[in-house]
């Protein structure tokens, strides 16, 4: 694929949905509005704000958020394997721009057979194919089951009217190679957009999300600071900068990411490691004297890209020695 024809990748931020599954994290309505406004200012196009386990409660705050008209596309999730699906989807589509009906693919979650899962999902999707509403299908545990099952149910969902397909690495066990194979096969079988949702249990969320894009996915679920269930999700800041440096446009303003990260850190009370990629305090902090003459050679991207500045640790030598003069020159003194 030529660099100049790469499609825009939609980053759907789920800080206000998946981020609330982070232990001890609670966002007040005021906090949600501040985070949503910061995401809009950063150029994030879509936010996921309704969880399938708390549809009614989340829709109340979603209605107040959408009333602010921040220019953000809003989306949420409804379980297709629950009796309440039709009513919850009806309520959600009145408030949100997009709703995904989730069908867990694990045999351990009801319904237990593949045939039942397909039938139930198609039955819940069918009424929306004739209506002017954006409703898609999402598949938790998609990386834990045979690829053939994912392809079968995804094709049936698309035929039933799903506007989007989202595959979930629910337990964070996938690797970039298996994700690339799954997403590549899926993109070859369905004509609707394919999104990928990564979890970070093996520290591979960013790599897996990038593999999905390389295989044809046009959307990724992300969260600020990687907040999320267990070890978290794919980080908005890591994904946005990685895609930008590799030629995939997202529309996100990377210089706004550090401020957004600090806001979410403060409101969530989950500290960002100084070693965190992209927004961590040490990303552009140089200590080794071999870095001083050419620090840019030791950086994955320019600090200006995210509005950061280099720093150099003061060397423990006598003032005026060659090593200390080199460090001073590198600091611009």
Task: Based on the model shown, name its key terms.
disordered C terminus; TIM Barrel; 36% helix; alpha/beta; eight-stranded parallel β-barrel; two-stranded parallel ribbon; 10 strands; 333 residues; globular
CATH fold assignment of the largest domain = TIM Barrel
Order of helices and strands: EHEHEHEHEHEHEHEHHEEH
Count the E strands.
10
> For the terminal residues, how far apart are their CA atoms?
46 Å
Mean pLDDT value: 93
Instruction: Kindly provide the radius of gyration, computed on alpha-carbon positions and rounded to a whole number of angstroms.
Output: 22 Å
Name the helicity range: 25-40%
* Overall 3D form: globular
Q: What is the structural class? A: alpha/beta
Main beta sheet: strand number and arrangement?
Answer: 8 strands, parallel, barrel
CATH superfamily of the largest domain: Aldolase class I
Number of helices: 10
Instruction: Based on the coordinates given, report the CATH architecture of the largest domain.
Output: Alpha-Beta Barrel
What is the CATH class of the largest domain?
Alpha Beta
What is the strand content? 5-15%
Tell me briefly what this model is.
The chain is an alpha/beta fold.
Descriptive report:
The protein is α/β, with parallel strands linked by helices. The protein has two domains: 3-268, TIM Barrel (Alpha-Beta Barrel), CATH 3.20.20; 285-330, no CATH class. 36% of the residues lie in helices and 13% in strands. It has helices spanning 29-41, 55-66, 85-95, 114-129, 147-159, 176-189, 205-214, 236-245, 257-268, 322-330; strands spanning 10-13, 46-50, 73-79, 98-102, 134-139, 165-168, 194-197, 219-222, 285-286, 311-312. Helix 5 (147-159) packs parallel to helix 6 (176-189). The chain starts with 9 loop residues before the first strand and ends with a helix.
